[in-house]
Amino acid sequence: MNANLSPEEIVRREALVKLRQLSIDPFPAAEYETNATAAIIKANYQEGQEVSVAGRLMNQRIQGKAGFADLHDASGRIQIYINQEVLCPGEDKTLYQEVVRHLLHHGDFVGVKGKVFTTKLGEISINVSELTVLAKSLRPLPVVKTDAEGNVYDAFTDPEMRYRMRYVDLVVNPKVKDTFVKRTKIMNAMREFFNERGYLEVDTPVLQAIPGGASARPFITHHNTLDIPMYLRIANELYLKRLIVGGFDGVYEFSRNFRNEGMDRTHNPEFTVMEIYVSYKDYNWMMRFTEEMIEHVATQALGTTDVQFGDKSISFKAPFARVSMTDAILQHTGFDITGKTEDELRAKCVELGLEANENLGKGKLIDTLFGEMCEKHFIQPTFITDYPVEMSPLCKRHRDNPELTERFELMVNGKELANAYSELNDPIDQRERFEEQIKLMERGDDEAMFIDFDFLRALEYGMPPTSGMGIGIDRLVMMMTNNESIQEVLFFPQMRPEKKQDGPDLAAFENTGIPAYWIEALVSLGIHTLEQLKEVKPTALHQNLNTYRKKNKLDIPAAQLDEILTWIN
RNA sequence: GAUCUCGUAGCUCAGCUGGUAGAGCAAUACACUUUUAAUGUAUGGGCCCUGGGUUCGAGUCCCAGCGGGAUCACCA
């Protein structure tokens, strides 16, 4: 038996062998027919009803000749009662004495048949008359227990382990499962809202030759046949607009976007944004549409428009407040940005102690003022409207003021949740705005956009007036499920790959003929295996070893490059 | 990227100014036919993240690394 197994794993593997000796297949192939679930039995309680259910056996409380255990299925938990005489009415008590008492463990999958009854203490339970082993669990699950007051004991809480082993997290922490069920309900409710209005759900490329539609650093990959670099999408906006050019009334997509930027509790390298574009509409229509949609989603998915997020209560009841960008900044800084020059804006930022270097254009400066001074104050859903033209290169100019755009962002809990425009459909203006972005790029704004000439060509064929809106699904789910970190609403958040931590492979070094004094040096240089040794440049290693020799004043011959080459080959 | 902080049994966690590794749950054995987290008695279980250093002696102190978390920076 493998020496790396823990004692509990060894016990379970031995049980596996013993089950086979008793002619019980621990991993049977056949379908196991069920006619109920834990939730159904509890909801439609009928004394004496014959049921067949399957799930994980948990928390056995088996005593001498009878006892209890819990069966967890996808719907929840139900208690089972196992009595030796009911399970094994004949002479042969093996199933009870051996299998139930010794060979089944916490976490094993079993199917049970039996009559439903209520225990003395009033808990709906199944009196098991047949038990089938469905799958053995070879690793012990954490045993988490909850008492009558809801206190949780021995909770499985380490975030690293929870995220890396989400399957365990889901088994053991019911709230986690609930979050993900809600996530799907939220997306379904949104879909339903769009579909009812006749808008079409579409798929557009994830792999793009030009990463457009947003300002962000993309992931780069390479297409072999075309022999060109390709990018994972940072946004799908430009593709959806092409479809509006193509004549659809309204299109939407749940877009998995990828951005090669920092990771923290609100940023994952891949994340989901829903974007929708509707022709013949403007951003005023889109504001009404958005607040109605969010109200609908909250009602459908949560059953209420009132959401508790941390210590704050948030109401998603429409209509939401509307505040212009200019008013928001005026309100929170007393400074009126109307008609101000870049230098005046920069001076104000400096006065307020905000970062405002020469790379920042007018738009970025206003964005800084808003982001630093105002954003955090908007806890209840609020539409911030009419952004400066410099920070919105894809947005139509404001009908009353050419310095502004017809844009809104929806702020909730001090964070941006949605972003929408009256889309820019003047191809000549669009081309100029892209060229402005290129100038910003040349000034050192590494987030400025690339020019997508095919998109400009599409606009030149004519795009009807259109309003578009994007909403961060992960952030919406976080708010609606009261989770402070994005990792909690993604099944498999991105983590650094697991690295097995072995000690240095001294034997391999010795076998390669490396002298003992150099092995010591290699280890302290962080080279623990032959693979690592082969990855370093021999010339660099040569230098490093001799530096090590000198630094530690070792009385050994200096390393020779030829010698090092013989180790590697 | 910066700072702080954590890494001890399958899980949750103790382990003081350095002196032979601890508890509860889980596991194993025995007893027990209705328990409500969680029966009683007994037993087993540890590369204390890795490597190096200081020391007579390191889970504990120091250095480096790996991995996590928090805060900040970055984030149309």
Give a verbal description of the structure.
The strands form 5 sheets. The protein has an 8-stranded mixed sheet, with helices on both faces. The protein has a 5-stranded mixed β-barrel with strand order 1-2-3-5-4. Strands 9-11-10 form a 3-stranded antiparallel sheet, with no helix packed on it. It has 569 residues and is of the alpha+beta class. It contains 20 helices and 20 strands. The mean pLDDT is 85. The protein is 37% helix and 22% strand. Helix 11 packs parallel to helix 12. 34% of the residues are buried. The protein binds one RNA strand of 76 nucleotides through helix 1, strand 1, strand 2, strand 3 and strand 6.
* Beta-strand content estimate: 15-25%
Biggest sheet, in brief? Answer: 8 strands, mixed
Q: Please state the structural category.
A: alpha+beta
- Secondary structure tally: strands: 20
Shape: globular
List the total number of helices.
Answer: 20
In percent, how helical is the residue content? 25-40%
Any idea what the radius of gyration is?
Answer: 32 Å
Distance between the termini: 36 Å
- Low-confidence segments, given as residue ranges, are none
**How are strands sequenced across the largest beta sheet?**
8-12-13-20-19-18-17-16
Mean pLDDT: 85
Outline the secondary-structure elements.
Layout: H1 7-21, H2 38-43, E1 50-63, E2 66-73, E3 76-83, H3 84-87, H4 94-103, E4 109-118, E5 124-135, E6 145-146, E7 152-153, H5 159-164, H6 166-172, H7 174-196, E8 200-201, E9 207-208, E10 220-223, E11 228-232, H8 237-245, E12 250-258, E13 270-279, H9 283-302, E14 306-309, E15 312-315, E16 321-324, H10 325-333, H11 342-351, H12 362-373, E17 382-385, E18 407-412, E19 415-422, H13 427-443, H14 453-460, E20 466-472, H15 473-481, H16 506-511, H17 516-524, H18 530-535, H19 538-551, H20 561-568
Parallel strand pairs: 3-5, 8-12, 16-17
Antiparallel strand pairs: 1-2, 1-4, 2-3, 4-5, 6-7, 9-11, 10-11, 12-13, 13-20, 14-15, 17-18, 18-19, 19-20
Helix pairs in contact: 6-7, 7-9, 7-15, 11-12, 13-14, 19-20
This protein binds one RNA strand of 76 nucleotides through α1, β1, β2, β3 and β6.
